Amino acid sequence: MGDMREKVNYKEYATGVQVHKNNVEIVQKPGQYNATDGLVTNKPGIKLCIFTADCAPLLLVDPINKIIGNLHCGWKPFVADIVKTGVDKMRELGAKDIYAAIGPCINECCFETGEEVAIAFEKLLGKSCWNNRHSNLRAGIELRLNQLGITEVYHINECTCCNVNTYFSYRAENGNCGRLGHVIEL
């Protein structure tokens, strides 16, 4: 398993220089997009790719209107409401019925956080996703999607931190790890 950032051909893929914010770009061609944690397109043939190592990848699709999105949902982009920003960009392109998939990420069992994270989640969601000093990023993303009218949410419900033989985990590997690449294409 190698670091996917080293294997991406930017003539084929659209990727973001991820900065843990909520910027989502509508892309019409491959390339690298500065200060971008999410990508949306309605153009066939563009592979949207984001990278993670505990953060949640959120892949979105409207199969009828042929619009896709790929969002890097670490806790910072999440509480900055990247989910709404990405969904709004897709709807700007004409998306109506959006389906979502949340890939492998750090799960509640390993995501010990401070109270400031819990407060930020609750401020965004109107509900707590914090239990005994652990935040549930996956549940927060699904709740936010539901609040935005997206109820078809699929999960690869594996914890990256618990499964370092399969996935990269920034937390478990003390930052000395590669990145998983998550790709969606029309």
Question: What does the model show?
Answer:
The structure is a single chain. The chain is built from four helices and twelve strands; from the N terminus they run βββββββααβαββαββ. It is of the alpha/beta class. A hairpin with a 4-residue loop joins strand 6 (56-62) and strand 7. The radius of gyration is 15 Å and the shape is globular.
Relative strand content: 25-35%
**What fraction, in percent, of the residue positions are helical?**
10-25%
Count of extended strands: 12
The major β-sheet equals: 6 strands, mixed
Structural class of the secondary structure composition? alpha/beta
Using the alpha-carbon principal axes, give the shape: globular
Radius of gyration: 15 Å
SSE pattern, N- to C-terminal? EEEEEEEHHEHEEHEE
By DSSP (H or I, 4+ residues per run), the number of helices equals: 4
Average pLDDT works out at 93
Low-confidence stretches: none
Which features characterize this protein?
186 residues, alpha/beta, 6-stranded mixed β-sheet, 4-stranded mixed β-sheet, 4 helices, globular
